[in-house]
Design a protein that fits this description.
Helix content is 35%, strand content 18%. It has helices at residues 28-43, 64-70, 84-97, 115-124, 162-173, 189-194, 202-211; strands at 4-11, 52-59, 76-78, 102-106, 130-134, 140-145, 177-179. Helix 1 (28-43) runs antiparallel to helix 7.
């Protein structure tokens, strides 16, 4: 079976720099605390298979010490590029150059993404060169590739049509794609209201238990 890596994108949980679309009604400090809870829950999840390696791509570069303490089991990489598209291209190029042939990238905004979905992503890459997990606002919260496909990212990301545009671009490039069951990110207050943490996300659950009652949209 081909060498595989699960890569995470993460930001340092600095107030005013993360989850800004939740402010208001949240204060920047609350949004940062929520993001840190979700991030730490994701970091503590095991790899979705015994042969799957992990990698953490972080930003900003000056946060290396924080991430080294928060994620001691992860090889650390600084995100490269000024845009999300550039950073994603760099990630796939780097891991492909390291010899990985199944590369799955997930964000840290979807802490309740099922473990089965991650396992399915790697299984799908044995059949097709591209796998995506849609979110509920027209984007995706997971993308997997067998090898770099820079042209997939030559479009505006983080829009309500990015999933459809990515699939159209893949078809034009001759890349067969498989979509997994949709899940959702936490980007807006409406997303937060739908979030249902479970035993895999204890920090997120505690944050919601403490503060959800006092939040109003």
């Amino acid at each position: 079976m081909s060498r595989a890596v699960l890569a995470l994108f993460a930001k340092a949980p600095v107030p005013g720099e993360v989850k800004t679309r939740l402010c208001p009604p949240l204060r920047p400090e609350q949004a940062a605390a929520l993001y840190e809870a979700m991030l730490r829950d994701v970091l503590e999840r095991p790899a979705p298979g015994p042969t799957i390696e992990r990698a953490l791509w972080f930003t900003p570069a000056g946060a290396r010490e924080w991430f080294a303490a928060a994620a001691p089991a992860y090889p650390l990489y600084v995100q490269q590029g000024s845009t999300l598209a550039e950073r994603m291209r760099a990630l796939f190029q780097k891991h492909a150059a390291e010899g990985y042939r199944r590369i799955v990238l997930r964000g840290t905004d979807s802490p309740t993404l099922p473990d089965a979905t991650l396992a399915s992503a790697f299984a799908a890459l044995e059949r097709v060169p591209l796998v995506l997990c849609p979110d509920r606002d027209g984007g995706y919260n997971l993308i997997g590739l067998r090898e770099p496909a820079d042209a997939l990212f030559e479009l505006e990301l983080s829009t309500a049509s990015v999933l459809d545009e990515t699939l159209e671009r893949a078809a034009a490039l001759g890349l067969a794609a498989e979509c997994l069951p949709a899940h959702h990110d936490v980007d807006t207050f409406e997303d937060l209201a739908r979030l249902e943490p479970d035993e895999r996300t204890p920090r997120t659950a505690r944050w919601l238990a403490e503060l959800r009652g006092s939040m109003t949209p």
